[in-house]
Amino acid sequence: MVIDDRPVPIIGAPMAGGPTTPELVAAVSNAGGLGFLSAGYLSASVLGERIAATRALTDQPFGVNLFVPGPRADPGTYADYVAGLGEPRWEDDDWDAKLALLAGEDIAAVSYTFGCPDPLPDVPGEAWVTVTSPDEARAAIATGADVLVAQGGEAGGHRGTWVDAPDTVPIGLLSLLQLLGEVEVPVVAAGGIGTPEAVRAARALGAAAVQVGTALLLADEAGTVAAYRERLVTGSAPTALTRAFSGRLARGVRNRFMAEHPDAPIAYPEIHHATAQLRAAARAAGDADGFNLWAGEAYPLARERPAAEIVRWLAG
Fold first, then answer.
1. Dihedrals φ, ψ of 313, to 5°?
2. Nearest to 18 by CA among 37, 44, 45, 43
3. Which of 37, 55, 129, 132 is disulfide-compatible with 140, CB 3.0–4.6 A?
4. Whole-prediction pTM value?
């Protein structure tokens, strides 16, 4: 297992939409951890460019994360919500083309979020599957997953839940690790980890390594935009779960857009595309109240420093 070969039990979470850059992935791997490129929202050609850019920055192993396509939503469920926002549309995130690309790449691990393909794709590297419940964990193992990424409810960004449902109640990380118990494959703990003590706690409950995303949002190498960074550093607002930006349950720092859209329907990626232009305009204007500020519950612990320092500090 690639986890066993890494000197530091820290995994750099794949943060789609900008924060994860080749520089950040390479920095985590160069520091002894394992960085992950986020393929979400990218075309296969751009993903290929980012893999090449990462390879130019490190000779260490790294992984790639894919979004598993979900079903189309009934337009009737979201038509009123997206009126005047933008064009809602379903697409599969260039799934087949990305798998074809990865089939020819020497990637240490490919992780899957939003579901578990059955059968798992025939691509090089270990198959890591994000799970949020014991039922998902059992299904992932039965399908042949090499590693489970156990995502607790504290985690920032989209829930990795295989089926987003109205009554979804996320399980906290420590509870999830205990519920998983001694499974047959290694477990990577994710969610709310921002200190060396939290790393030790997760590993004491059986995690082979921990995955951190929010802790790296302020890293020098992260692509986090200025308004986003400023809100993370100076903001005091708590995080909350929302579907307002994308139509899929995700955790971010509370802002005006979230407050104005408390009852967004389940429709991903349709709503994601409908709000894309609005969010891009808010980013360009530096309006942190108009776009998603994905972050975990422990985001006030994030610090501005090089990624390698963050990785080494978390590893103790």
1. -65, -45
2. 37
3. 129
4. 0.97
